[in-house]
Amino acid sequence: MARITNHPILKAPEGTPFPFTFDGKTVDALPGEMISSALFAADIRVFGHHPKDGSPQGIFCANGQCSQCMVRANGVPVKACMTPAVAGMVVESMDGLPVLPEVADVTQISDTSVVDVDVLIIGGGPAGMSAALELAASSVDVLLVDDKDRLGGKLVLQTHKFFGSIDAVYAGTRGVDIGSKLAEQIQKTDTVDVWLNSIALAVFSDGLVGVQRGTDYVLVRPRVLLTATGAREKALVFPGNTLPGVYGAGAFQTLVNRDLVKASQRLFIVGGGNVGLIAGYHALQAGIDVVGLVEALPECGGYNVHRDKLARMGVPIYTSHTVLSANGEQAIESVTIASVDRSFQPIAGTEQTFACDTLLIAVGLDPVNEFTEAAKRFGIPVFAAGDAEEIAEASAAIFSGKIIGREIALKLGTTTDPVPEAWAQTSRILKSKPGRTIDRAANLIGNSTEAISKNAAPNRNDGSERAVFPVLHCSQEIPCNPCASVCPQGLIRIDADDIRHVPEYVAQEIGKACIGCMKCVAICPGLAITLLDGRADVAFPAVTIPYEFGDHALRAGDTAIAMDVSGQILSEVPVLEVRAIPQNDRTVLVKVKASADIASRIAGLRVQQPWVGDPLPERVEPLADTDIICRCERVTAGEIREVIRNGCRDLNEIKTITRAGMGACGSKTCQTPILRLFRECGVPLDEVTVGVPRPLFVEVPLGTFAGLNLAQQENASPAGLLENAERSRGDSEEGVER
Length: 738
Known about the structure:
Blueprint: E1 18-22, E2 25-29, H1 35-41, E3 48-49, E4 56-57, E5 70-73, E6 76-79, E7 90-95, E8 113-122, H2 126-136, E9 142-145, H3 166-169, H4 175-187, E10 192-195, E11 198-203, E12 209-213, E13 216-227, E14 231-233, E15 246-248, H5 249-258, E16 266-270, H6 274-285, E17 289-295, H7 304-313, E18 317-319, E19 321-327, E20 334-339, E21 352-355, E22 358-361, E23 365-367, H8 370-377, E24 382-384, H9 394-412, H10 421-431, H11 449-456, E25 468-472, H12 482-486, E26 492-493, E27 504-505, H13 507-510, H14 519-523, E28 529-533, E29 542-547, E30 559-563, E31 569-579, E32 588-593, H15 596-599, E33 604-605, E34 628-630, E35 635-636, H16 637-645, H17 651-658, H18 671-680, H19 710-715, H20 718-727, H21 733-737
Parallel strand pairs: 1-7, 3-7, 8-9, 8-13, 9-10, 13-24, 15-22, 16-17, 16-22, 17-18
Antiparallel strand pairs: 1-2, 3-4, 5-6, 5-7, 11-12, 12-13, 14-23, 19-20, 20-21, 25-28, 26-27, 28-29, 29-32, 30-31, 30-33, 31-32, 34-35
């Protein structure tokens, strides 16, 4: 079984396993577990084969945004990533097209209930919850719906500590714990009603929003709609891009951090933004080898502290590189990469192939904005918050929700207090991209034996204490202030008006001494602070390093490989102490001993052996015509390029000719890559007509609109549903639309 039973941050899920079958094989699942996660835990990665060409199918998004994980459960086609396993359930591979059941019963259609509410919030992630809390403070009647079984959104997947401001967005606290804090606050409100396992399906022209609440269909009539639906991952087009084992970072984090399933043995990452860098760190925490990471740009776009952390753990990072192909037959077996020139074209002769069983795609996000756009078309008062408004960090989404909540309260007249300018400024700071990088090497206190000696013997009576001090390895302007907030002596300074400034150690300036409490070391989200202590031995000081791989991985008396901030090996060092205490929030503090000439340069310890990242002796050539644009209909990039070169400028026409965008996901996955093909073909996007959106944004069984629950739908006759629908249609065109 590929389950994670010992994680340095998360507790293993509890509950008694129960059996179901997949293609006749008995598989165990845990209570509430999705079919896809249970299959992965049983080392099953292929969920079916496409009816067009027999290509193997697996997961991609694990968030209900695509349809690549489709299986048959008790004869009904369902998304494996969104359907909980049930004891005794019969699950089958989706090989070919599903067949409708032949049932002759005539089904009675039930009425649909309508719920009136002041504000409907779609999405219970950081932005949605923060907005609900702000609205509750003004006694606004709120309905918060989310398609998962718990609130939190992507916070549920984030085991790392967050950046930003401690006071504004819980910086220094792990994302999963922030989600729990916000959810607990929601539960204590009197005016926020929460519907979990509830999927918003559509926004209608009469101001109603269709919601599938569990197995019931409900229409909600809000005075104001707030979409806090987050983002979906962008797909990347290359040969082999739809092989099982090639999937998004969100899917990986769902399997590993939500469900504690060891989704991979050898992982390769495409994309050097924060999402890819963080996913690599999460993989290492789960005991997964990270073979490497490629980024097409000359530098990773994510925070330097994330990149540096991954590098010093031992992960090779290839900038100015791209993925050429994922290789394999029924699943990915290797990935081939190459260097790129200034035009991002592969450079012949630089190809390398690496063995891997998972290729994680982290090349950016698109806002889930279809609810917002539909509401605007129909003149419904609508706001957007978090990634549905603007792609940024989750900490920014928390504050975005707070601001939008106040704006909605103002619109409804339940408050007269405007959004403070300080809130707007904080929001701008939290959304900002990484800024300047400074040269820390010249400014580090104790960066040489002489400097350590100077600090060990200053001309002060209490000077012996000054031989202990933090070494700040973060050098990039990013919004973050936990270290300055927790220092009891006030020795770390960050501009309170703009927390993007890098921290400074100001002990000499203010005339106080570090007491060696190690609070800054333990709280730093980037694991970018160490503590150098030369009080016992100036020539061989102790260095305390943050470590998030459990207190069992290293023991006093072991040796470890000390790395500098960029991932270069400094020396093998002895471990003096491994300290794990509750107030450090699962960050273990490892104390090592090192010579004074390298002590201040030690930024971390290597976790992964160098041979993990070795390439195969021979590169693997990609298969022809396997770069898929439309996953649902298996339409290649070459097919769409030909249509574009023949003069087509309309995505609706492309759909008609090639079927691209006609699949179950409704072009959520393929529209962005198709627009990219237009740019590659030299067609300005202002000449392109985008596709007409479907009235329903999510696939839903037809019986849902008839008022049937799931059990009834499994036994319902399609002919009977149609007969009753014709009988009860009436004269209302809006009713037909809905």
